[in-house]
Design a protein that fits this description.
By secondary structure, the chain is of the alpha/beta class. The protein has two domains: 61 residues; 78 residues, Winged helix-like DNA-binding domain superfamily/Winged helix DNA-binding domain (Arc Repressor Mutant, subunit A, Orthogonal Bundle), CATH 1.10.10. 28% of the residues lie in helices and 16% in strands. It is built from five helices and six strands; from the N terminus they run ββββααβααβα. It has a four-stranded mixed beta sheet with strand order 3-2-1-4, covered by helices on one side. Strands 5-6 form a two-stranded parallel ribbon. The longest helix has 12 residues. The radius of gyration is 15 Å and the shape is globular. Its EC number is 2.1.1.63. Keywords: Cytoplasm, DNA damage, DNA repair, Methyltransferase, Transferase. Its main location: cytoplasm.
Length: 170
């Protein structure tokens, strides 16, 4: 993901019980949450040379993710604004993902219907795959039409871990 403004971008990498996490953002808010699972993300996440390491930035996000992955938190209440960068269509899909309650799942067609575009199931899937802030924008809660675990940018095992943390068994 490339910067769309001239503001400096900052990053912070830390360990959780599930994997290492890298947070990236600017003064506008959090742009990227990358899970270091060794799987997924075909575009290859890299820390850009002009990003500035700042381990104090995004401290509320870091703390709440550590709590989430340890099983002591299920919902996020962040003071850091979320600022995912995407097209208007992607933004509408990501907004719809935020409506999925913790501990529940829905299907891609449910999201397409929610954004009033029922024929856009494949486009919804593509937008979900481009979600730059997984876990917090809960794309892991979307399952296949038959209820099976389907694609997740950070690997199916991580998707299953996230759902299990929320009490959904697969």
């Amino acid at each position: 993901m490339k910067k769309q403004n001239n503001q400096p971008w900052y990053f912070n990498t830390f360990a959780t019980q599930a994997c290492d996490v890298t947070l990236v953002g600017s003064d506008e808010g959090l742009h990227i949450l990358h899970l270091e699972t060794g799987e997924g993300k075909k575009d290859g996440f890299i820390i850009e040379q002009d990003w500035i390491e700042d381990n104090a930035r995004f401290s509320d996000v870091k703390q709440q993710l550590i709590e989430y992955f340890s099983g002591s938190r299920q919902d996020f209440d962040l003071s850091t604004p979320l600022a995912p960068i995407g097209t208007p269509f992607q933004q509408s899909v990501w907004h719809a993902l935020n409506q999925i309650q913790t501990g529940s799942t829905c299907r891609y067609m449910d999201i397409a219907n929610q954004i009033h575009n029922p024929k856009a199931v494949r486009a919804v899937g593509a937008a979900i795959g481009k979600n730059p802030i997984p876990v917090i924008i809960p794309c892991h809660r979307v399952v296949g039409a038959n209820g099976s675990l389907t694609g997740f940018a950070h690997g199916i095992p991580m998707k299953q871990t996230l759902l299990n943390l929320e009490g959904v068994s697969f």
